[in-house]
């Protein structure tokens, strides 16, 4: 009887997805979604706590953040569960994911979905085949992960201490020669360190278009030769002679605050303004990007194949792309991450909410961030970090 | 041979065997399979040596291995030397009780919290540099690798600050069983220097009693993960850290070489212990010849002073580290090179989003549960020994020490898979179980000596008055041993609070404790929030030790001879 009713409803609305969605909402009510997300950023943690309050009030779905120090921990955990034969009732309901971790899970068949098209708020996304929300590190998303925040690679410096900053990636060599010990980057085993290398690779590669294809031996040698030449020139003038590296960007930001280095980096253009407000960077900290633009990507959430609360996770994924949520997230006082929604699909009141958000001196405008460069295919990143480790880990 | 209490002994033995020792072997079985190419979940199902080849080919493998050996062995050897020297210098001046009280803060503080604090004290932007800055004219941190240095010196210092007090305590308690004063005065009367009396007369008697704890220190130093992550070099890190990273690499295929590395970690510890055993044999031969030569060695005095000075300096740095945690948690802005924060704030404590309240309650719950369960099991074990009227067999002693000399990283990953198969991973039960594997041995070791030191005449009188074994246990032993039992519980609490890998692996990351949060946060940018967690982490074992001191003092306030010390 219930099924008939749902079928009837589906016909009357003409959109089967919406009827399914009601079913998902019913199933999700009362669930607790264990969201595995990198826990190194207090603002993100606070935002996730806010999400939990909202979804609990609106849909009866609680969110519990499992704080990771490295997203791959969650991938490893799902693999262990598969190894132990726990194909349902898994301990992870949702993962903040992208790039190589997504590729690994997709290739191993560890993901639930496709589910993105079923989310009612997906109507605000640009899901065209070439849009940023449909391609993750050149790997087609195919509805297996849902976007939630925009990331763009930026550098941070203290304008009170340093007057000149490098204008291009190539400039870093001469800049570091003038400021010995003033520059470093997170170890490339960390996502941010790898992104720094990719940012340089895109600018220095003789033909950057091959980076959009899976890596081949022939292309790898030719494409990365200028990068290593550049890096060998840069490294001797780096902090501690380029022999040791901070674990991640948070530690590097702390080093910038201590004055141990002059430049730090982030995938979140708002992080500088937020860190100033929290007393973690001096008032004079500012953001810069290379002239030719910087790497941008989208952070997604994915649901493991054995998630115990897949319905709840879908409800949370849907909540994350609601225009009100995205506007709240873009508020510099909250998270300051740029929205992943397509402005052309938003109505006037939603656009007005975005326009009314507060500004800050240390918060760059979207225009000043320059063009967005596409992430190379994920296989390049794996190859690049392995090669770096081979060359510089003695 | 006595059959009294046979069922009790069998029950205890099977609980220990099935719930504490078997999991270790299950874990190693899983890890071992992966190390030899068997990991069906990734489609790897042929037996091969490929993971070992991959392991050796991983970048930095050789350096990691070397670093592990250098830091592990030197931290152990230096700790042992310092503890011995310090004991020799101050033994006649402190009572064992006072010594133990002095050492308590260092024994109580979890390794990770100490490492976080130490990183701040020693770092180029840390307290020592800030103290020097006005005199040297630094307006930015000096470009010196004082933590995470490629030699692993900061790591060695960090380990020593924890291990010297531990060995001191062990040596002090061993010394209570030797007539030290007599031996020393006899030696001095024959013209031997104070240091030489210790090396030639006292230490040969002490060594058999501290051998196992020294192995535990060695095994720990060779396989520690959290401290090495915070203080050790990062590129490449020590083997244990590298293995943890490989287990969590983006390329899941690295789980196989990581497993091979985990097995290698076991071999390294076995090798390390073998080297110590060989060294012991060698010293035994050479030592005899050396003793007979009869050198008086008056020149050892400066060595003793040096050992005492270094020990005191290490302890002072440790105290600074603990203090720095508290100050950071109360700071708001604290730029270099200011010696104290520019502005203070309680925000890190009051900000609800940092969620320390939940981590605290989880930690307290886990600590009390595992400690109480472990103490109950230890009492049952000791009572079983009493009823059989026999000492502990060597194999039983080995069983107790086993979890302490094997590397956690070696079997926890495999154990997690085994736990998942029986469906208990990711909840409190799994974490309590995994922690108990490490809490029980410490509790057992702490309780054994006081238990055996109980004056049997009291028990005989009770038996003569018609009290059965159970009544003797409840009415006589437990009340008399209240203080050692509570102290063992406090030690259990401290061990439980400090557990990082077992909580992380078995809790599937869902069970947040002060330690897991502090280690995660120490990779973040906010020292103030890290300070909150690390300070709480330090306070908790303190409170437990304080309770272990105050409760018997209150209950036995009118019982002069029930102060818990061994009656002789």
UniProtKB/TrEMBL annotation, chain A:
This is ABC transporter substrate-binding protein. Coiled coil: none annotated. PANTHER family: PROTEIN YNJB. Keywords: Signal. Pfam families: SBP_bac_8 (PF13416). Residues 1-19 form the signal peptide. Gene3D superfamilies: Periplasmic binding protein-like II (3.40.190.10). InterPro entries: SBP, YnjB.
UniProtKB/TrEMBL annotation, chain B:
GO terms for biological process: transmembrane transport. Residues 61-277, 360-551 form the ABC transmembrane type-1 domain. GO terms for cellular component: plasma membrane. The chain crosses the membrane at residues 7-29, 67-90, 102-130, 150-175, 212-231, 262-283, 304-331, 359-382, 394-418, 430-447, 480-501, 532-555. It is a multi-pass membrane protein. It holds the Pfam family BPD_transp_1. It is found in: Cell membrane. Keywords: Cell membrane, Membrane, Transmembrane, Transmembrane helix, Transport. It comes from the Bacteria. InterPro entries: MetI-like (IPR000515), MetI-like_sf (IPR035906). The keyword Membrane applies. Belongs to the binding-protein-dependent transport system permease family. This is Inner membrane ABC transporter permease protein YnjC.
């Amino acid at each position: 009887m219930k099924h008939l009713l749902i079928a009837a409803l589906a016909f009357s609305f003409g959109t089967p997805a919406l009827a399914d969605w009601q079913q998902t909402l019913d199933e999700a009510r009362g669930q607790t979604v264990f969201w595995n997300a990198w826990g190194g950023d207090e603002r993100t943690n606070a935002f996730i706590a806010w999400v939990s309050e909202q979804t609990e009030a609106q849909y009866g779905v609680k969110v519990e953040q499992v704080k990771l120090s490295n997203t791959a921990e969650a991938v490893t955990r799902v693999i262990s569960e598969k190894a132990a034969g726990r194909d349902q009732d898994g301990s992870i309901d949702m993962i903040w994911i992208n790039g190589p971790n997504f590729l690994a899970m997709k290739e191993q068949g560890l993901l639930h979905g496709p589910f993105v098209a079923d989310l009612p708020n997906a109507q605000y996304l640009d899901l065209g085949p070439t849009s940023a929300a449909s391609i993750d590190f050149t790997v087609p998303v195919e509805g297996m992960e849902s976007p939630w925040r925009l990331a763009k690679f930026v550098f941070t410096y203290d304008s009170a201490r340093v007057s000149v900053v490098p204008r291009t990636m190539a400039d870093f060599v001469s800049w570091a020669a003038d400021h010995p010990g003033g520059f470093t980057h997170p170890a490339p085993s960390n996502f941010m360190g790898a992104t720094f290398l990719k940012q340089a690779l895109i600018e220095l590669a003789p033909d950057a278009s091959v980076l959009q294809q899976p890596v081949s031996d022939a292309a790898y040698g030719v494409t990365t030769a200028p990068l290593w030449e550049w890096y060998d020139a840069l490294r001797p003038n780096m902090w501690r002679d380029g022999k040791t590296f901070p674990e991640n960007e948070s530690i590097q930001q702390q080093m910038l605050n201590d004055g141990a280095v002059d430049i730090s980096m982030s995938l979140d253009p708002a992080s500088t303004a937020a860190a100033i407000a929290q007393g973690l960077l001096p008032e004079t900290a500012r953001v810069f990007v290379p002239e030719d633009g910087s790497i941008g990507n989208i952070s997604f959430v994915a649901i493991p194949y054995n998630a115990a609360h897949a319905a709840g996770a879908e409800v949370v994924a849907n909540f994350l792309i609601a225009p009100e949520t995205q506007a709240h997230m873009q508020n510099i006082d909250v998270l300051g991450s740029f929205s992943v929604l397509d402005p052309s699909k938003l109505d006037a009141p939603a656009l007005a909410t975005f326009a009314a958000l507060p500004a800050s001196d240390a918060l760059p405008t979207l225009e000043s961030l320059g063009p967005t460069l596409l992430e190379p295919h994920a296989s390049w990143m794996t190859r690049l970090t392995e090669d770096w480790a081979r060359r510089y880990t003695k | 041979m006595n059959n009294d209490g046979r069922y009790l002994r069998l029950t205890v033995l099977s609980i220990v065997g099935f719930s504490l020792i078997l999991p270790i072997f299950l874990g190693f079985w899983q890890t071992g399979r992966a190390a030899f190419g068997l990991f069906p979940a990734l489609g790897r199902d042929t037996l091969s040596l490929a993971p070992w080849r991959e392991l050796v080919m991983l970048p930095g493998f050789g350096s990691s291995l070397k670093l592990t050996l250098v830091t592990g062995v030197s931290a152990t050897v230096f700790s042992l030397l310092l503890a011995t020297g310090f004991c020799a210098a101050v033994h006649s001046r402190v009572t064992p009780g006072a010594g133990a009280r002095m050492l308590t803060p260092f024994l109580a503080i979890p390794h990770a919290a100490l490492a976080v604090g130490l990183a701040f004290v020693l770092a180029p932007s840390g307290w020592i540099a800030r103290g020097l800055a006005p005199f040297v004219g630094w307006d930015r941190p000096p470009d010196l690798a004082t933590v995470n240095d490629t030699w692993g010196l900061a790591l060695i210092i960090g380990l020593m600050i924890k291990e010297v007090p531990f060995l001191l305590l062990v040596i002090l308690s061993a010394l209570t069983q030797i007539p030290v004063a007599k031996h020393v005065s006899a030696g001095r009367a024959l013209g031997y220097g104070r240091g030489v009396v210790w090396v030639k007369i006292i230490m040969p008697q002490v060594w058999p009693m501290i051998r196992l704890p020294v192995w535990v220190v060695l095994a720990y130093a060779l396989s520690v993960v959290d401290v090495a992550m915070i203080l050790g070099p990062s590129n490449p890190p020590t083997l244990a850290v590298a293995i943890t990273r490989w287990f969590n690499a983006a390329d899941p295929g690295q789980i196989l070489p990581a497993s091979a590395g985990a097995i290698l970690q076991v071999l390294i510890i076995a090798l390390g212990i073998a080297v110590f055993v060989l060294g012991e044999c060698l010293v035994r031969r050479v030592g005899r010849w050396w003793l007979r030569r009869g050198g008086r060695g008056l020149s050892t005095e400066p060595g003793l002073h040096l050992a005492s000075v270094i020990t005191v300096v290490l302890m002072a740095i440790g105290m600074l580290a603990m203090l720095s945690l508290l100050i950071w948690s109360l700071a708001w802005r604290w730029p270099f090179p200011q010696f104290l924060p520019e502005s203070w704030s309680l925000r890190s404590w009051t900000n609800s989003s940092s969620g320390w309240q939940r981590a605290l309650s989880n930690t307290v719950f886990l600590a009390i549960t595992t400690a109480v369960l472990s103490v109950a099991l230890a009492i049952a074990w000791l009572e079983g020994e009493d009823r059989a009227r026999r000492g502990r067999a060597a194999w039983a002693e080995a069983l107790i020490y086993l979890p302490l000399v094997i590397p956690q990283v070696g079997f926890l990953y495999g154990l997690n898979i085994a736990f998942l198969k029986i469906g208990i991973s990711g909840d409190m039960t799994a974490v309590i179980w995994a922690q108990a594997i490490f809490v029980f041995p410490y509790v057992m070791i702490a309780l054994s000596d006081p238990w055996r030191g109980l004056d049997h005449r009291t028990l005989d009188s009770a038996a003569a008055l018609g009290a059965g074994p159970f009544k003797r246990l409840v009415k006589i032993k437990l009340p008399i041993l209240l203080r050692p039992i509570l102290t063992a519980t406090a030690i259990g609490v401290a061990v439980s609070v400090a557990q990082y890998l077992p909580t992380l692996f078995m809790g599937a990351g869902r069970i947040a404790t002060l330690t897991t949060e502090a280690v995660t946060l120490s990779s973040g940018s906010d020292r103030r929030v890290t300070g909150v967690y690390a300070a709480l982490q330090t306070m908790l074992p303190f409170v437990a030790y304080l309770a272990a001191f105050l409760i018997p003092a209150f209950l036995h306030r009118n019982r002069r001879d029930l102060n818990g010390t061994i009656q002789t």
